[in-house]
Structure formats: structure tokens, C-alpha cells
Design brief:
about 375 residues, alpha+beta, Naphthalene 1,2-dioxygenase Alpha Subunit, Chain A, domain 1, 2 domains, 5-stranded antiparallel sheet, globular, binds FE2/S2 (inorganic) cluster, binds fe (ii) ion
């Protein structure tokens, strides 16, 4: 199988680092103030910057496959409806009636021809336009064209549905935003994948602690001693910094066998787990034969929701295939839970004041890069390009 120049470079780096008995490192240790995990004001800044200006993944395209399919999403604090319109494109709106603000629907998902408000039955099309007002003579001076649902940006890329949870004047260029990850993610054909399982977990930990579980592999052989540890080289990984996105390649032990192979025969996918961080809160975690997509969203100081889907190349056709994927799903739930239990423990200790800062080691590269990007976004230095 042909691999990209980027993947060739990752493999070569891993082999070189392994020969030297080292791993990918930055120049310095970083001290990260504990207030970044515990201060409600800091959290407000993060929500108002990261979760209002950048795209987050909320679904797989197949969740909204047909005209009229819709879903709601509230976790970011912005009530959103996404619907597949008659022309096949997606539209996203605030789930807020333009008459007096009622929620149009409380259903998590469904199929609709229109959205009719439960309060006074104003009716909107799938495109968000106001279609009908009962006893409209009471509103005859109002311009119906200006009373459509308020749109928020929505995109479909790499088989995923992305929204920016705020009303925007600008036309965001999501292709430019995701360009550094495009070659790799397009090659996976995630749009052609099937959602095997989806789950959503509310956890009592800062969203940042949940995020950090996916940004380094230093913890694998302690936190995941009986699960993930043996599956990967211990604390030996490569981070490609596409500021603010990061491709974190974690090798399987058998990657070392590639030393004896002609580089033109090297395969990447079968030798790596790749944790792709797509700023600010999305991970596309590529396993050797399936993919996890997760989004971590703060729901308050010290709480977050972890929304995850497991994608497989095709729907299982046999019981054996079903069992195989179920086993993978059961294992990953255990592994993620090992991270979350530790994260919730950290959260409980934050207020003790024992630590003024956490120490990010030189090889905890993803943590250092992630904090820098978050700081840049809050400072207004990082933006999604516009067209
Ligand atoms: S609030 Fe929706 S129709 Fe009145
Ligand atoms: Fe972990």
C-alpha cells in the first residue's frame, strides 16, 4: 500500500528515535497554571472563544442522511437544530422561535417536513424560512422574510457534521482551516464508514483534563497497564504540529519490523494509532481497522460531556463480525474510563491548592502545543480563515 510522504517521515522518525532510545521532545518543560482547569472565569473565556468561534463535530453525515432528517445539540450551551434540506445540503439554526423564543423541538433527532413551534404554531421550513403564522393578521406589519430561524455555520467534511455554535457574519473557510489534515483524513473515507456505536458521557472533570488524556502516550503503561500498554511502544510517539491541529502518531511494537523492509513496501495504518487533534475539542482517533471520533465539551466548572462515535468500514454482515467490533467497543470503553477515573480524581484535588501549576514534560508534546493554541485563541491570535 502506498503511503504519503508525511507517513513515511513519521515511520522514519520512530525508527530513528527507537534506535537512539529516545522519543519526540520539545526544548523545555512547561508549567501550566492550575487555574487553567479550575477558574470559572477562565472557563468562560474558553467557552466564549473556543466554543463560539471554531467548528466542533456533532454527528456523522449518515445520521442526517435524508431530506428532513434533523438533530438537536445543546451541550455547548447554544441550542442548535441541524436539518437536511430539500436540496440535500445541511442547515443549522438556533432552536429558538422568532416569535417569542420557544424551543421548536426537544427531540434529540427525528424526521420532519417543517418545524412547527409548540407555543403558537409558527411554522418554519427545513431551510429555516418562516412559512406560516396562524391568524397572521395580528402580525401584518412584520416582514416575514426577516423572521426566519437564525442560522449558525454548519459544514460536512470527512464524513462528519461540524457546527460553529454561534451566529457569525463571516463566511468561514473550513477547507483552509482543515487543510493540514486533509490528505490523511480524506484518505480514510470516513463518509463511507458505518457508525457502530455512539455514546455520550457526562463526567465530573474539567473538559481540559479529558482532552489531555488524548494528547500524550506517556501514561499508557501506567494508567492502562492491563489494557492499552502492551499494544504500543512505551512513550514513543511523533507529534506533527499543524498549529493548532496536531497529528499524534503512536506506534504499535511491530513497527520496528519495518527496519528490515524496503521503505517502498512500508504500510502506515497497520502500524500506528493516530490521535488527530482538530482544534479546539475534536479528536479523530484512527485505529488500524476502525476509527473513533470524539468531541469534549465543557458543561460547567469541573464538568464536561464526552461525545464519541465508533466508525467501522462497513456494517457487520456476520455474527462473528458483530462480536469482533463489539469486543473493540467494550475494550475502548474500559480504556477511556481508566482515563476519566484519573481525571475525576485530579479534579477533586485541584481545590486543595497543593499544585500551583502542573508540569508538562518535554515529551508531553501535545499538552504543551494544546495549551499554547488555547492561549492563542483566547488572545484573539487564532481564527478560522474567512473566504
Ligand atoms: S413562541 Fe413560537 S410561535 Fe410563539
Ligand atoms: Fe488514556
Amino acid at each position: 500500500m502506498k503511503i504519503s510522504a508525511e507517513e513515511h517521515h513519521i515511520i522514519q522518525d520512530i525508527l530513528d528515535l527507537n534506535t537512539k532510545g529516545s522519543t519526540h521532545m520539545l526544548d523545555a518543560v512547561m508549567h501550566n497554571p492550575v487555574s487553567n482547569y479550575a477558574d470559572p472565569e477562565k472557563l468562560n473565556q474558553e467557552i466564549n472563544s473556543l466554543f463560539r468561534n471554531f467548528p466542533i463535530i456533532i454527528a456523522h453525515s449518515s445520521d442526517l442522511a435524508e431530506t428532513g432528517d434533523f438533530m438537536t445539540h445543546d451541550a455547548t450551551g447554544m441550542p442548535i437544530i441541524v436539518a437536511r434540506t430539500n436540496d440535500g445540503t445541511l442547515k443549522a439554526f438556533l432552536n429558538v422561535c422568532r416569535h417569542r423564543g420557544a424551543r421548536l423541538t426537544d427531540e434529540p433527532c427525528g424526521k420532519a417536513r417543517t418545524f412547527s413551534c409548540p407555543y403558537h404554531a409558527w411554522t418554519y421550513g427545513l431551510d429555516g424560512k418562516l412559512r406560516g403564522i396562524p391568524q397572521a393578521f395580528g402580525f401584518d406589519t412584520e416582514d416575514k422574510a426577516k423572521l426566519g430561524l437564525v442560522e449558525v455555520p454548519v459544514f460536512e467534511r470527512f464524513g462528519m457534521v461540524w457546527v460553529v455554535p454561534s451566529v457569525q457574519d463571516q463566511d468561514m473557510d473550513i477547507d483552509a482551516w482543515l487543510a493540514p489534515m486533509e490528505e490523511q483524513l480524506n484518505g480514510l473515507d470516513l463518509a463511507g464508514h458505518t457508525v457502530f456505536q455512539k455514546w455520550s458521557l457526562d463526567r465530573n472533570m474539567s473538559w481540559r483534563l479529558a482532552l489531555e488524556g488524548f494528547q500524550e502516550s506517556y501514561h499508557f503503561c501506567s494508567a492502562h497497564r492491563d489494557t492499552a500498554c502492551s499494544g504500543y511502544l512505551d512513550n514513543q510517539s511523533v507529534h506533527l504540529n499543524f498549529d493548532p491541529h496536531v497529528r499524534h502518531a503512536v506506534p504499535l511494537p511491530k513497527v520496528l519490523e519495518l527496519r528490515d523492509q524496503d521503505p517502498s513496501d512500508w504500510d502506515y495504518r497497520s502500524n500506528f494509532m493516530t490521535q488527530n487533534y482538530l482544534f479546539p475539542a475534536n479528536f479523530i482517533q484512527v485505529m488500524t481497522d476502525h476509527v473513533y471520533v470524539h468531541t469534549i465539551i465543557p458543561t460547567g466548572p469541573g464538568t464536561c460531556v464526552f461525545q464519541c462515535m465508533m466508525l467501522i468500514p462497513e456494517a457487520p454482515k456476520t455474527e462473528k463480525a458483530e462480536r469482533y467490533w463489539q469486543k473493540n467497543f467494550d475494550l475502548i470503553r474500559v480504556v477511556f474510563n481508566e482515563d476519566f477515573v484519573i481525571g475525576e480524581g485530579i479534579q477533586k484535588g485541584l481545590d486543595t491548592g497543593v499544585n500551583q501549576h502542573f508540569v508538562f514534560g518535554k515529551y508531553e508534546v501535545g499538552l504543551q502545543l494544546g495549551q499554547k493554541s488555547i492561549d492563542d485563541a483566547i488572545a484573539g491570535k487564532l481564527k478560522v480563515p474567512t473566504r
